[in-house]
Amino acid sequence: MRIGLLTEGGYPYVDGEGGVWCDRLVRGLGRHEFDVYAFSRSEAQEQAGWVPLPPQVGRVRTAALWGTEDDGVVHGRRARRRFSELYGELAAVLCAGADANASGAPHAPDDRPATSGAHRASPEADRFATALHGLAALARDEGGLQGALRSETAVRALERACRAPGALSAAREARVPDLLAVAAHLERALRPLSLDWYEEDGLGAVDVCHATAGGVTALPGLLAHHFSGIPLLVTEYGVRLRTHYLTRPDAPPSVRSLLAAFHGRLAAEIYHRAEFVTPGNTHARRWQERCGADRAKLRTVYPGMDPAPFAEAGESPGSADPHTLVWAGRVDPAKDLVSLLHAFARVREEEPKTRLRIIGGPSDPEGAAYLGHCRALAAQLFPDEADGPHSVGDNPVSFEEFGGAGPATSADAHARGAVTVLSSVVEGFPVGLVEAMLCGRATVSTDVGAVVEVIGGTGLVVPPRNPRALAEACVSLLRDPERRARLGAAARARALELFTVDQNVSAFHGLYLEIVARTPVRRPLLDATGDPLPFATPAEAHVPGHWTDRPSRALPPWALDTSIAATETAR
């Protein structure tokens, strides 16, 4: 089987997110062929190079979502008119609010998550899809789309849509700087429409398009489905629409409204056209349903981790320090280490021997400032034990980083404590929590994101921003070693059952086969008169492995042509 893997800002680049998961998927399915179509996010990412690729990766094609390069084509009068009509239609849908919620996605009348068929009940959704595919066809027929998206024609079309009767009140309030900001964002988001990836020797030749994220990442798969009927599989471990909301809190209301409408419409169209959508947890699944995803298409596939590095800690739970709490991860305000420190002050009142190890570092200036604030707070909460405001001394709270004097790996970090604590107020899929479970450690976590789904009764869960509840849960486990051991063993068993690489790869292998089995043949073989040949594509043409390899010399001459034909058809 030939898979078109669509990525953004990750695989095959060395510096990017999601690269480890994609690499494990490709290497785990060695009998399939993979063509990688990757978007880069910066020049530095491209200069960092690629990770070593396995032999089953047949080709890699890349495109940049940064910079301002275009094909140099200038539209004539007819093409300009066609672009103005299509872009104006797209903008009109974004400005219309009659049947849309704040995200731009349709919803049920009582504001519950939209279910099967909600997306296509909206005529605005059909208008959006028609305009999107029309722009893609214009780019394929005439070229010059990137230049047109940056032109004054685009800004004026957007302005007319915002000033039209019935437009959203937030859109009507848009000023020139707001219109320019929205047009610039749409130009970057619509760049995949201009690519030459959709020909018969590109995405048109694969059996399945697998988008490793939604939004812009899945847009090439949406176009391959439109132009060539290629089935689309979409995987979202972090819902892009949710990310859009979290990363643009300070934008003007008109900009937020228009971009939310665009991303909501795009997400709904992608979910509608996909054969399957695979969220990484129930939290992401609820978001997808809210954006119009059909529940019948949703298949939860948990992220997979390699359990081998955690085996030693998991099989020797007695090596942990019974008086140590461990927090490990990336330091930023969403992790709410302030509440953790206040909770630890209460823990020390009940269990004076307890120590807290905070292991990890910041990834940006905001995180660095937050880490400094937490260090100062720790010195303030335990003044009798700290040597000074800039020294940890004998402070029961230690701030460490991986490597150097700190633990070398996350497995080492969790192995050193009796209880692992998660204090976040915002969390998607808690990878650090799964690592602690693989180490066989009891956990205390806040009820955010997919935490409850991951824990599944093998740890204690408390409300977020509640230091008292967090402290009481920690104390209860510190005082009961038998309960700690029992919860840790159950947590490790659960993690080995649900959150391993083998489980993840096996799930996608099954989805690939199911998609191909239900997808009709796109290129039927014809006889001399031009009529389709019945049974020209044998069933085994879609079976992975040696069934579709070229035959050995042991095959008789009469079987040679049939086997080769089956191979070429499968490809």
Automatic annotation (TrEMBL):
UniProtKB keywords: Transferase
UniProt-listed SUPFAM superfamilies: UDP-Glycosyltransferase/glycogen phosphorylase (SSF53756)
One Pfam assignment: DUF3492
Disordered, as annotated region: 102-123
Statement: the UniProt record of this protein carries the keyword Transferase: yes
Domain of life: Bacteria
Record domain DUF3492: where: 1-295
GO MF terms held by the record: glycosyltransferase activity
Protein name stated in the entry: D-inositol 3-phosphate glycosyltransferase
Species for this entry: Streptomyces capillispiralis
Taxonomic lineage of the native organism: Bacteria, Bacillati, Actinomycetota, Actinomycetes, Kitasatosporales
